[in-house]
Amino acid sequence: MTLLFADIAPVEYAVAVDRFLAEAELGAASRRVYRISLAGWAWPLVGLQPPAGRGRRGASPPVVPLALLDDAAAEPRLASAVAHRLQHAQARTVHRELSALRSAVGWWQRRQWITADPTAALRPTGAPLPVLLPPLTRAQLTDLWAAPAGLREQAFWHLLADSGAAAETVLALTADAIDIAGGRTRPAGRIRWGQQTGELLGWLLAGRHHGPVFLTDRRAPAGTSPADVCPLTGRGRLSYRRAAEIFTEHTRSLDPAGRGWLLHQLRRAGAGGQIPESAAISNGV
């Protein structure tokens, strides 16, 4: 039997990071954040502390064998690194960085490149993970679909509920990845949706074949990455934070508690789930 290159476990942690990011459906900005976060964990895996301050981003991480993640010393080294990081960064930032590592570790485990999960028991001291609220019920979804929201919001919410994909994964989609007729993303069909969602996406794209699927209401500021700008309208990619704010604002009147719902409740109402995103931890959804 021929062994495909993609099935061969890389020797180095950095190569495994590259392979993970190459497969992850992330926008350019999110991909950069993930790469910086994952590179930062290379130092503690070999018992070192990463450079402090701004020098951390430009520093070259040490060469780390991927097999070190299966070593019994990996978990205590990472736990020590989390404690040290909390002394120099906000808890939300540490949660985001740890979430990126968890995402990569899970992806590597599914490919049997590693067997252990050295992040399983890690939680930043004094900064508990947000409590996940229950998924929306069928009745709540019915109320949501009847809400006076715009086409962009309805298409986004339907896609989350249909697919079970993480909000940041969906926001990272580009128009050329949307196969309306097939009800899935190209090329691998990782995200799938139903007929009503397909109709909403078709109306939303309205002939757009390039650029982000979900756009902001205004033109993108100067210096925005071309990958995050619609070439036809000049508008930028809708950010996770703004999408979360809009959802909570629109659902406050539907929530008996008056707080509004969170995007993760839509994802958990869906049928599956994709690579968890850093924002799921850093923003509590």
Give the structure's gist in a few sentences.
This protein has helices spanning 13-23, 28-40, 42-45, 55-58, 74-86, 91-110, 138-145, 151-163, 167-171, 195-205, 240-251, 263-267, 278-282; strands at residues 178-179, 184-185, 215-219, 235-237. The protein has 285 residues and is mainly alpha-helical.
Tell me what you see in this structure.
By secondary structure, the chain is mainly alpha-helical. It folds into 2 domains: 106 residues, no CATH class; 145 residues, Intergrase catalytic core (hpI Integrase, Chain A). The chain is built from 13 helices and 4 strands. The strands form 2 sheets. Strands 1-2 form a two-stranded antiparallel ribbon. Strand 1 and strand 2 form a beta hairpin. Helix 1 packs antiparallel against helix 2 and helix 2 crosses helix 6. The longest helix is centred in the middle third of the chain and has 20 residues. It is globular and about 55 Å long. The termini are far apart. The N terminus and C terminus are likely disordered.
Give the termini separation.
43 Å
Strand order of the largest sheet: 1-2
Strand count: 4
Radius of gyration: 20 Å
Tell me the name of the CATH homologous superfamily of the largest domain: Intergrase catalytic core
> How would you describe the shape?
globular
**In which range does the helix fraction lie?**
40-55%
Helical run tally? 13
Which CATH architecture of the largest domain?
Orthogonal Bundle
Order of helices and strands: HHHHHHHHHEEHEEHHH
Write the CATH fold name of the largest domain.
hpI Integrase, Chain A
Low-confidence region ranges: 1-5, 271-285
Q: What is the top-level CATH class of the largest domain?
A: Mainly Alpha
Main pleated-sheet profile: 2 strands, antiparallel
| Mean of pLDDT | 83
- Supply the helix-strand structural class: mainly alpha
> Per DSSP, what share of the residues sits in E-state strands of 2 or more residues?
under 5%
Tally of discrete structural domains:
2
